[in-house]
Inverse folding.
């Protein structure tokens, strides 16, 4: 049976899809490329970085920007695939391990979060990468289910945490019931224990409540989550309802989880006064480190201290993601970790 590894398990690398002028980043392309370059260089201190580019010229440009940030060139790998946008968490491969521990690349459908945005190129990226040989001998399996990587959290032991509406959704998977979706996820991902949430959202999120913006496994028995203690905050009611649901969850053996709340940063608004989805649950776990999105807020340090306690064997690195949230996502949303053995490149 396949197994969906936890994010803290050994990785081959992290996939990024590089911004370009035909993405929604066009008006702030230089700023977002600077962020991507800094992130890629940071990841390269610990493991490989796979950067997906639209063509050879784009790849040369991306390589130059990352190299300028002193990235480890031996850990920098570029591949070609046209893209609509850059949210690799949701259009990238979901990699499972088979009974022998060998990787298998699952290619779920991506339809722009229920048809909100164009995705005809993004949904082909995994197949194009596989065809290029970047995943080596790992087989690719196309799965006729819309599933975004940001919608699921795994403890590596057969438990999946998700918000129901991001999967059981007529715009994503019309006609499929929750039991039918559970059966498909059990077969493909090896899930034996499902934890479904009905509540939870942060303002400005386009994904209908991706779990990676709300609650994350930090260990098989620990969940950290976006908390809010201000009744005047627009997100207070939804996050408090989610907190209540989290307290009621039990693991596969019937034990309650240790819950750790992450503070909210102060609301960040766009030019029209609309709130952007700034939050700390959107961190990325890599080999030897956790990279935390920050927003120039006093709560940044508090969130970093909490993660330092939860991941004592990993360095806590920070990256200002104020630019990223302008387009409705943050650090975890633009990255996809690839388990050990998933990349056919030198380590």
């Amino acid at each position: 049976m396949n197994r969906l590894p936890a994010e803290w398990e050994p990785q081959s690398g992290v996939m990024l899809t590089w911004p370009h002028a035909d993405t929604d980043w066009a008006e702030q392309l230089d700023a977002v490329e600077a962020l991507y370059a800094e992130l890629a260089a940071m990841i390269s201190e610990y493991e490989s970085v796979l950067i997906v580019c639209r063509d050879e010229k784009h790849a040369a440009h991306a390589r130059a920007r990352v190299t300028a940030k002193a990235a480890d060139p031996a850990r920098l790998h570029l591949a070609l695939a046209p893209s609509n946008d850059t949210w690799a968490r949701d259009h990238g491969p979901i990699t499972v391990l088979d009974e022998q521990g060998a990787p298998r690349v699952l290619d779920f459908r991506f339809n722009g979060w229920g048809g909100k945005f164009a995705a005809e190129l993004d949904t082909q990226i995994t197949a194009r990468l596989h065809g290029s040989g970047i995943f080596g001998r790992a087989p690719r399996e196309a799965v006729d289910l819309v599933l975004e990587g940001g919608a699921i959290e795994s403890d590596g032991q057969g438990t999946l945490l998700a918000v129901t509406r991001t999967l059981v959704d007529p715009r994503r998977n019309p006609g499929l019931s929750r039991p039918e979706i559970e059966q498909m996820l059990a077969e493909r991902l090896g899930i034996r224990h499902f934890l479904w949430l009905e509540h939870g959202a942060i303002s400005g999120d386009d994904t209908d409540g991706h779990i990676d913006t709300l609650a994350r496994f930090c260990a098989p028995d620990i969940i950290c989550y976006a908390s809010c203690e201000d009744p005047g905050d627009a997100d207070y009611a939804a996050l408090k309802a989610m907190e209540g649901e989290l307290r009621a969850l039990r693991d596969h053996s019937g034990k309650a989880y240790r819950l750790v709340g992450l503070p909210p940063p102060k609301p960040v608004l766009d030019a029209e006064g609309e709130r952007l989805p700034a939050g700390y649950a959107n961190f990325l776990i890599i080999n030897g480190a956790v990279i935390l999105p920050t927003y120039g807020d006093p709560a940044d340090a508090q969130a970093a201290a909490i993660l330092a306690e939860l991941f004592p064997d990993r360095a806590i690195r920070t990256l200002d993601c104020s630019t990223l949230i302008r387009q409705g996502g943050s650090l975890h949303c633009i990255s996809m970790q690839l388990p050990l053995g998933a990349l056919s490149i030198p380590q």
